[in-house]
Amino acid sequence: MISLYTAATPNGHKVSIALEELGLPYQLEVLDLASGAQKQPAFLAINPNGRIPAIVDHEADDFAVFESGACLIYLAEKTGQLMPVDVKGRSLVMQWLMFQMGGIGPMMGQANVFFRYFPEKIPAVIDRYQGESKRLFRVLDERLKDHEFLAGDYSIADIANWAWVRTHRWSGVDVDDLPHLKRWRDAIRARPAVARGIEQPPSRIDLGRDGDVAAKRFSEEARKLVEMGRDTQPLAQHKGSAP
């Protein structure tokens, strides 16, 4: 059994999707990020960085893993699935996983903070992060022009990137001119395990409706945290609380 400490964010959904795809039994431990649950001593003992997601593998002497990418790698290597075992194949998956960890996630996360949550609208900053997110989307689109998935067969690289790309509207980034990215996005969304994974836990807001009352309330709550001077990184992650 694996305990998954998580919330309805892109990074959190990466791991729940992987667990569903792998068919591993797991117990969901949902943290209320707005309350600061991720900063409490009990969770810091699992992840010293105070971020979700994290997992504890109770079949391996309660071994704890933090950082979403590290969780994906651990689960893939534990099961021998969603990542090739040959050196080149594994490297290709790792390259596209690191692309998400170092680019897609941070850029979209900051776009969310300044586009959705920050009390002051700073056009140059918003343009910077939305523009860089779109540039990275173009890289994915070009890759997917001649490849069904990012690194050969469907893998943790696809899961990691998809969990963020699916929330592009919340970041204010359009993908209508990226046909290959849209094809890939829709194909992965149709996978039954993916559909189950993004409901663990379910999202609180609906990306498809900017005027949705819940979305407005969510943005207001996040904005208050920014104004209070709290750490904004959970907010960058929290934006993924959308289907």
TrEMBL record:
Residues 1-83 form the GST N-terminal domain. GO terms for molecular function: transferase activity. Pfam families: GST_C, GST_N_2. Keywords: Transferase. Transmembrane segments: none annotated. Residues 86-205 form the GST C-terminal domain. InterPro entries: Glutathione-S-Trfase_C-like (IPR010987), Glutathione-S-Trfase_C_sf (IPR036282), Glutathione_S-Trfase (IPR040079), Glutathione_S-Trfase_N (IPR004045), GST_C (IPR004046), Thioredoxin-like_sf (IPR036249). This is Glutathione S-transferase.
